[in-house]
Design goal:
single chain; mainly alpha; 5 helices; 0% strand; flat
Length: 159
């Protein structure tokens, strides 16, 4: 640690100007370079791109909504079963409470792990495909119509 110099104005009493303040460390950080003169307009455009990407990450298909509903139900039931197991053990002291509490806790674990399974196998692939479609500029409706028009599918009249 450096020694304080008595010749420094900061350590001399009654010689310097009163009320001297230092700049904060945040002011010493380098500023971000804006793309144009109007930084407010660039902020507004970044908000619109952020909202567009968040909308693209959540496909609004019935399959996606059903999978999300299943995921939420599994997580909520896991939480409720865990809390009921804990409350049974805390407030009831009968001989049957311990096995029932363990069964409830096992069901809670099963519900939570099933929610993770639903997320990894159903929801994430749907979100990834929605991200890829958003990056390529495709909409889900356009993709469905292109798949319906494909000649590789079987004709309804069997020819």
């Amino acid at each position: 640690m450096a020694r304080r110099s008595p010749t420094n104005a900061r350590y001399q009493k009654y010689t310097g100007p009163e009320g001297k303040t230092r700049k904060s460390a945040a002011a010493a950080k380098p500023k971000k370079a804006s793309s144009g003169a109007g930084s407010k307009s660039s902020r507004g455009s970044s908000k619109s791109t952020k909202s567009a990407t968040s909308v693209a990450r959540t496909p609004e298909t019935p399959e996606y909504r059903a999978a999300r509903k299943q995921w939420w139900i599994c997580l909520a039931s896991g939480l409720v079963l865990t809390m009921s197991s804990m409350l049974l053990r805390k407030f009831l002291h009968a001989s049957w409470v311990n096995p029932v509490s363990m069964v409830l806790l096992g069901l809670a674990y099963a519900a939570i792990f099933y929610a993770l399974y639903v997320d990894w196998t159903k929801i994430r692939p749907m979100r990834k495909s929605a991200d890829q479609n958003a990056k390529s500029g495709k909409t889900p409706e356009a993709e469905k119509t292109s798949l319906d028009d494909s000649p590789t599918g079987s004709d309804p009249d069997g020819t």
